């Protein structure tokens, strides 16, 4: 099969022929119809993820496609099924999975990190009965691929971890794919959203997706959010992942507000200094959010089906495998506004 692969951290990826994957006993091979290009893929390529240990490596973790083959232990799926998967693939057997918390599975795998990913014509997924999510026939593959990491992560961060309610103020720091998803989801939940970014283009998209106000950073962000919201946001999300945006998100909160860390903060970015004096004095909550389990997709899919959520509007560019290496490398310096989808 054709795939995008690289032979070492920071080395330019290339499209090459690699062996086709085989389905694990409890897993499936999916023919990839669409896969998202995410900043997490760039972090992996740069060596910021300890799960990538062998080369050559194939990135990609946001995918949608058709089941091509299943292992002998799979009972719920067959060739021809239209599916997507969460980027955290669970084992289904550990204590976290037994509690329904597959997004923090103790033996999780992640396509594009712990094993070869979806920048390819085919990808193998283990524990198919736990991790595959059925797609309705009317949902395009590109839209479904946009759900897998950024949109599903944002959905759980806003609704489950942030517990956003109608009329609350929500600040979203960083309006890339996950941030714009969070803007759209929070607005659909009836919240008033303040979008924060350094890019006027990203802020224009945030307005389109429901932001009530925008703040162009990087200076004076927290003060501006507190002024717009009359004392601070009820919920603030760092959707970018940097020491500066993490601190600004916490500083943006009102009393008893909730900070949700969504963007990755790899050690290479430097330590994040959380203003703990403010956390204590205002009784703030500091929460992490790490994807969403396959069993929790129902409410999100229902809102997509009803038109309340439009993840398709986040897709601003579709490219082929040949253009994926350059697009991945560019994410470190000039990430595209909105979401880029690769159609292998």
Identify the notable features of this structure and list them briefly:
single chain; 344 residues; alpha/beta; Quinone Oxidoreductase, Chain A, domain 1; Rossmann fold; six-stranded parallel β-sheet; 28% helix; oxidoreductase
Summarize the structure.
Its cofactor is Zn(2+). This protein has 344 residues and is of the alpha/beta class. It contains 11 helices and 15 strands.
Write up what this structure looks like.
This is Zinc-dependent alcohol dehydrogenase family protein. Its cofactor is Zn(2+). InterPro entries: ADH-like_C, ADH-like_N, ADH_Zn_CS, ER, GroES-like_sf, NAD(P)-bd_dom_sf, Zn_alcohol_dh. Belongs to the zinc-containing alcohol dehydrogenase family. Pfam families: ADH_N, ADH_zinc_N. The structure is a single chain. This protein is α/β, with parallel strands linked by helices. The chain has two domains: 2-149 and 292-342, Quinone Oxidoreductase, Chain A, domain 1; 163-288, NAD(P)-binding Rossmann-like Domain (Rossmann fold, 3-Layer(aba) Sandwich). The protein has eleven helices and 15 strands. Strands 3, 4, 5, 6, 7, 14 and 15 form a seven-stranded mixed sheet that branches. α4 (141-161) crosses α5 (177-188). The longest helix is centred in the middle third of the chain and has 21 residues, at 141-161. It is globular. The protein starts with a strand and ends with a strand. The model has no long low-confidence stretch (mean pLDDT 95).
């Amino acid at each position: 099969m054709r795939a995008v692969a690289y032979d070492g951290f920071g080395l330019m990826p290339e499209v090459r022929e690699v062996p086709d994957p085989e389905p694990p006993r409890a897993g499936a091979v999916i023919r990839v119809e669409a896969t998202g290009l995410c900043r997490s893929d760039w972090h992996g390529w740069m060596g910021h993820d300890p799960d990538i240990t062998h080369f050559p490596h194939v990135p990609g973790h946001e995918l949608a496609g058709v089941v091509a083959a299943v292992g002998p232990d799979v009972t719920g799926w067959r060739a021809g099924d239209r599916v997507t998967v969460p980027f955290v693939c669970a084992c289904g057997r550990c204590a976290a999975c037994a509690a329904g918390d597959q997004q923090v599975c103790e033996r999780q795998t992640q396509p594009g990190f712990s094993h070869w990913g979806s920048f390819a014509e085919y990808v193998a997924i283990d524990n198919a009965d736990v991790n595959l999510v059925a797609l309705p026939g009317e949902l395009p593959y590109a839209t479904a691929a946009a759900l897998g990491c950024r949109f599903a992560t944002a959905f759980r961060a806003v609704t489950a971890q942030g517990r956003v309610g109608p009329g609350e103020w929500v600040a979203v720091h960083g309006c890339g794919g996950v941030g714009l998803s969070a803007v759209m989801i929070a607005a659909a939940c009836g919240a008033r959203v303040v979008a924060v970014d350094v890019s006027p283009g990203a802020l224009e998209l945030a307005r389109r997706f429901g932001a009530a106000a925008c703040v162009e950073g990087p200076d004076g962000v927290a003060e501006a959010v507190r002024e717009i919201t009359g004392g601070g946001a009820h919920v603030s999300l760092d959707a970018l992942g940097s020491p500066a945006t993490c601190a600004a998100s916490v500083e943006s909160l009102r009393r008893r507000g909730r900070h949700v860390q969504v963007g990755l903060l790899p050690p290479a970015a430097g330590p994040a200094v959380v203003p703990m004096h403010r956390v204590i004095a205002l009784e703030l909550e500091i929460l992490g959010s790490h994807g969403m389990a396959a069993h929790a997709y129902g409410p999100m899919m229902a809102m997509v089906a009803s038109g309340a959520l439009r993840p398709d509007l986040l897709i601003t560019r579709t490219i082929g495998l040949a253009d994926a290496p350059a697009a991945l490398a560019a994410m470190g310096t000039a990430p595209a506004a909105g979401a880029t989808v690769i159609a292998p």
